[in-house]
Amino acid sequence: MPGGGPAMDDYMETLKDEEEALWDNVECNRHMLSRYINPAKLTPYLRQCKVIDEQDEDEVLNAPMLPSKINRAGRLLDILHTKGQRGYVVFLESLEFYYPELYKLVTGKEPTRRFSTIVVEEGHEGLTHFLMNEVIKLQQQVKAKDLQRCELLAKSRQLEDEKKQLSLIRVELLTFQERYYKMKEERDSYNDELVKVKDDNYNLAMRYAQLSEEKNMAVMRSRDLQLEIDQLKHRLNKMEEECKLERNQSLKLKNDIENRPRKEQVLELERENEMLKTKIQELQSIIQAGKRSLPDSDKAILDILEHDRKEALEDRQELVNKIYNLQEEVRQAEELRDKYLEEKEDLELKCSTLGKDCEMYKHRMNTVMLQLEEVERERDQAFHSRDEAQTQYSQCLIEKDKYRKQIRELEEKNDEMRIEMVRREACIVNLESKLRRLSKDNGSLDQSLPRHLPATIISQNLGDTSPRTNGQEADDSSTSEESPEDSKYFLPYHPPRRRMNLKGIQLQRAKSPISMKQASEFQVKGHEEDFTDRSPSSSRSLPVTSSFSKMQPHRSRSSIMSITAEPPGNDSIVRRCKEDAPHRSTVEEDNDSCGFDALDLDDENHERYSFGPPSIHSSSSSHQSEGLDAYDLEQVNLMLRKFSLERPFRPSVTSGGHVRGTGPLVQHTTLNGDGLITQLTLLGGNARGSFIHSVKPGSLAERAGLREGHQLLLLEGCIRGERQSVPLDACTKEEARWTIQRCSGLITLHYKVNHEGYRKLLKEMEDGLITSGDSFYIRLNLNISSQLDACSMSLKCDDVVHVLDTMYQDRHEWLCARVDPFTDQDLDTGTIPSYSRAQQLLLVKLQRLVHRGNREEADSAHHTLRSLRNTLQPEEMLSTSDPRVSPRLSRASFFFGQLLQFVSRSENKYKRMNSNERVRIISGSPLGSLSRSSLDATKLLTEKHEELDPENELSRNLTLIPYSLVRAFHCERRRPVLFTPTMLAKTLVQKLLNSGGAMEFTICKSDIVTRDEFLRKQKTETIIYSREKNPNTFECIVPANIEAVAAKNKHCLLEAGIGCVRDLIKCKVYPIVLLIRVSEKNIKRFRKLLPRPETEEEFLRVCRLKEKELEALPCLYATVEAEMWSSVEELLRVLKDKIVEEQRKTIWVDEDQL
Fold this sequence. Notes:
alpha+beta; Death Domain, Fas; 6-stranded antiparallel sheet; 58% helix
């Protein structure tokens, strides 16, 4: 029909519209329907009407995607919506029967309960059958309720018994608490007494110091007065001598005055002189007048007389001149006499003054000696009284300790007796409760249990030992023969448990590796839960409901790592299929082995910083080829990762929880640590301190009072599940961020307001002087390549760099600068991997060294492992008290020992290690012996009677440290020189001295002592080198001998081994260590240098052992390569040049290796 098609379409559309209208009415009330409908009630009726099938019912009731009842009811409505009008009719009939109120709400009609659909489908017999089934179900529910009531009653009785046990435990704890308070009161009283004694001692010391000061002031005043007295005496003596001299001079003058002529005599002499002059004139006039009148003969006579007179006058004049000269000489002699007399008097005065001064100083010296003797007597008396007081005090302390020990022993005996009494009471109460419970259970079990209860549930309630399915284990029940309290109070013997077999489990790898530490902790936690929740001697189980409720959270946490040997159940398989999808877990985000923050890295960076290159993950096949399965490989990786640090690199030595700063400057605040890193940003580092750079507005940190410019000093709180106290004032930027990011719960931040330091830090960063507040020096223990290791700087092992920023550009990279070896100045800068990343690189290099071994060594290791597996094959025979120790762990530990032996072997190190794979392994032992530590660990594993953990033993003997913190030292004096190999030292020293180096080098003079003196010297001094000359005489060298040589500005050439380097550095003596490289190519050149002939193989082996010991040195050493010399003369020249070069270099010391 041409018109039938459109009419049919219109009819179908009309039906669809009617159906939509009907379901729209249901959808309007969907919220109320999904909230109050229980799908488990409606699905039987819906299946009876054939609206839904079994698959739909299973989806609605058991789908894991529908955890709540509302979700299941909504899904049921969606399924009915797809069934059209029939689904709507049947749904309304089910509502009419089970939920009449909802039926009235949807339709607006009163329920009639006609069940037209089921009558049409099944007839009245089908309806009757359906109602009978419903009645049976209700009866079964009533029986289940009765069973649950019985279980609750049994559980109530059990809880009552536990309450009694807890009350007894409370009494015991109260006893301990009372003892604790008593001991605390005693400690407080002793502390008060100690404080009082300290105060008295302080007062006495202050009084003694005051009196001593007063005495010293009095002595000084007495000395000053004595000095003034002596000066006055000296001045008095001087004045007396001057007075005496003046007196003598005044007497002489007086005598001269008294002996001078009188005035009358002077006048008389003058008159006589005038009379004589007058007579002379008269005679001259007479003579002149007579000459004119005398005759010639008389004139001749007069001339003769005149001539005679003139001659007489001349003679007289000569005599007068002689007299005058004599008088002048007499006058000069008198002047000299007077001068000498004055000098004599002055000398006598000085002599007398010096004599008086000598007597004064002699008296003063006698006074000082008397004072010194008095001081010595007082000192001896003080020493004697001090010794007596100390002796008396020590005796009092000994007696006090003895009495205190007796009191403690008595209190412990009393407490033990009380605890034993409480335990006995607990045992009695426990036995009584068991007896009462068993009697009640035997009397009421048959009456309380329903008739149609399944046999499995009855057997479980009666305590049959049947293993649980789906990976569940049996727990304790209230009807067990021995309760957990018995195991607690009577300490039963725990039989050895076999370790679970995890072979074949393939762990899903995500972008970031899941730390094996969490897996091991999970397994250990599972064992602890087994031992705490189940008594070893008990074999009864709890009812199904309680056990299922206990196992459900554990199953939700277990993921794919099952801890039982039973096959998994259906829902476990569904859950595993669901969890197999790649996802980022919280374990990955907080992976401590890598040390990265997943929140700060995108996917690309996260892949870049994942655990090593693909060689690590692809190396399991080689391990398995040598007899290791997947579990053994995981154990090896776990043991390797245990050597890494769980927190970032900390350059500060002071790691105690103290606050720098005193007074009111330091403040503290308490806030929630969850998400604190997102509320603030940090600035600074270990050199400048950690500052708050910014605080998120409106956050908890801002409300707690934290502001920009506050310097963080200390963080106290829960960090990674442990209560810790971390000082932040000396942390690096990376460690401070790591600490704040991993804190949780309430934490306490100690800080101080330091805007000046913050502004100074910002200014220096803006000026480009620094990049952050970090500053420390490290020594690399591995080679780093810029092309292979995702960094911008290529460095070699033993290079020293200056770290400038531990989170450069907010990435997990370190900005550092290469250090000039002579001036300590920063050279070119670049980035290197962070500490955790460098640890991973170090592990990669170790695994590469193992995989690079030849086939013979692999076969040998395989044979060794097979023989060890044969010795450890019966796992049930492993008699140890630790359930974690198993043959698999032993095999993994043994393989790890083989790995350490492989790395420690020098031939592997020098034959198969290229320039990019050199590593320096720092051992925990002073000698740095890797092979010995691995052999000791293997021996510990094979000795079954020793209950030691091989992983801990290996961890104590070896740590993998990529970067070592070093400190710079400068030595102005010439440093001593050590040679290695040591067997060449004596010959090289002699040749250096004989080759004209006596002005620069010399040997150290040793001390010759007896055996007793040598033993005493060993206890009191550091002996660098010792040698026994004869049975009773020793030759030894101490640091004082070396310093005496350095004082002469010469290098001290030592013949000792490199084992004395640590002792020298501890004594502030920094030696130059020279390594002469020995290889197969140049071994023939050493024939002239060896003191005694040895085989080339033995000499080469000894040299390799000595070279291996150099890795453990706390300082750097210089190497003389084989290509640098071809003769002994060239070797001596190269050694001199090396010594001069090393003398100019800065000394870098790893103080952690001391």
